[in-house]
Amino acid sequence: MTTALVLGGGGVTGIAWHLGVLCGLRRAGVPLGDAGTIIGTSAGSVVGTLLAAGVDLEAAVAAQELEVAPRPPSSNGSGGGGSAARVMAAFAVLADPSIPPQQARAQVGALALAAPNQDEAGYLARMEPLIPVADWPADRDLRLVVVDAVDGRDVVLDRASGASLLQAVSASCAVPGLMPPVTIGDRRYIDGGVRVGAGADLAAGADHLVVMAPMAALSRDRILVEMAATGAGKQLLIEPDEAALEEFGPNFMDPSRRSAAVRAGLRQGAALAGEARAVWPA
Predict the structure, then answer these.
(1) Is the pLDDT assigned to residue 40 strictly greater than 70?
(2) How far, in Å, CA of 37 to CA of 98, rounded?
């Protein structure tokens, strides 16, 4: 009886919401973080790493509840006022149905490689405090999703991939136009969210599957197809409700919204305990 937890992308507010939901469910006796396989994309790669490392969820939630100053919509800490426009251009490419998916991802990768913010060392230094351990957890099946910036292939990194954990998480979070692509070996990688969906299909073979997707509204149909492809007998999609989306605000990278997002997650976790308990083994 195998269990898989899939954690999708969603920026700073997505990390907070993920942690709130997971903590709310654990308080209710549904420890999704104990999943045998954890698959993380972008924000989900950070949260998945925290879970695999055994971080105290209560402490993680408390850290998200700390108030911080708002961040202007055009600011991301890594590239200046033009960065928001570059992100929007990337989303426009991914949303164009006339472009084959891998080709669209390669075009987005080209945008990321051409962006002015290429301080990869500085980006890794900013990411390092988010990662509680230096090495891949040896006793957990942690898989992190990235996309090759040159050819648009989606790639799954794990402890056998040769990437350091910091490189893998940073690459999975490298939003094109906001952060530089991350070099691993002789390739450069960008945010796994460019794959679109949540990566649920990578949990094929699991008996019990829960997918948490902060940005499910953008690709819900695809996520449901991914989930169906796994063949999991029991499965559940958890996504933000309308109240949570209001708390996220318009800028998914605004840290001042973390406290509201984590509280929304705690509320949803408590409310969804019954549904989650029905699909998760006791």
Answers:
(1) yes
(2) 34
Taking the C-alpha atoms of 19, 22, 27 and 31 in order, what is their torsion angle to the nearest 10 degrees?
-140
Supply 53's token pair.
């490392």
Compute the distance between CA of residue 214 and CA of residue 212 in angstroms, rounded to an integer. Answer: 7
Which one-letter DSSP state was computed for residue 65? T
The sign one gets for the Cα dihedral 178, 184, 187, 189 is negative
Residue 3: Cβ-neighbour burial (10 angstroms; 0-12, 13-18, 19+):
buried
Phi-psi region for residue 54, left (φ > 0), alpha (ψ -120 to 50) or beta? Answer: left
The strand pairing partners of 182, in sequence order, are 189
Rounded Cα gap, residues 74 and 51, in angstroms = 31
What is the signed CA dihedral for 140, 273, 16, 125, rounded to 10 degrees?
0
Distance CA 22, CA 117 (A): 33
Angle at 109 between CA 107 and CA 115, to 5 degrees: 105
Asked whether 159 and 138 are in contact (CB, 8 A), the reply is: yes
Which residues have CB under 8 Å from 105's CB, separation 6+? 94, 147, 148, 152, 153, 154, 194, 195
Which one-letter DSSP state was computed for residue 191? E
Phi, psi (deg, nearest 5) at residue 211: -115, 125
Per-residue pLDDT for 76 more than 60?
A: no
The per-residue pLDDT for range 150-177, each reduced to its tens digit, is 999 999 999 999 999 999 999 999 999 9
- The token pair at 141 is 């099946």
pTM: 0.94
Looking at the DSSP bridge assignments, the partners of residue 189 are 148, 182
